[in-house]
Design goal:
Elements: H1 6-15, H2 32-51, H3 62-73, E1 89-90, H4 93-101, E2 115-116
Antiparallel strand pairs: 1-2
């Protein structure tokens, strides 16, 4: 997953090195608040239904994690760089934070690994 156009992307990578920094201004057209709202709606509707009759601390099923991932990425894809000819997108760090909080067991990705092919959902 090495980034093509790496020189152009380097300054953008610095903006995302701290995954907790969500107020990066490089992508003004991305509505992080909208992503959070959408994720919270999914969490509110899915978790109570799934937790019924299950262990409270059991990990969430894969399909829930996939739904959570798609809610954030498919509707809020962040281009890594303009004009680098890449089809890759940066996954908003908040998606990983929610997934980790909800027990999906995903790992944080940094640097070039923060680039990934968008999922098959658009």
């Amino acid at each position: 997953l090495i980034a093509r156009g790496e020189g152009v992307c380097r300054r953008h990578e610095e903006d995302l090195e701290e995954c907790g920094m969500l107020d990066y201004t490089v992508y003004d057209n991305v509505n992080i608040q909208q992503a959070e709202t959408q994720v919270r709606q999914i969490v509110a509707s899915e978790i109570p239904r799934w937790k019924e009759g299950k262990k409270a601390n059991a990990p969430l099923p894969g399909d829930f994690c996939e739904q959570l991932f798609r809610a954030v990425t498919c509707n809020l894809l962040i281009p890594p760089c303009e004009g680098d000819g890449s089809e890759r997108y940066r996954k908003p760090c908040r998606a990983y934070q929610y997934a980790l909080e909800l027990g999906c067991g995903w790992k944080m990705q940094f640097g070039d690994l923060a680039f990934a092919e968008p999922p098959d959902c658009y």
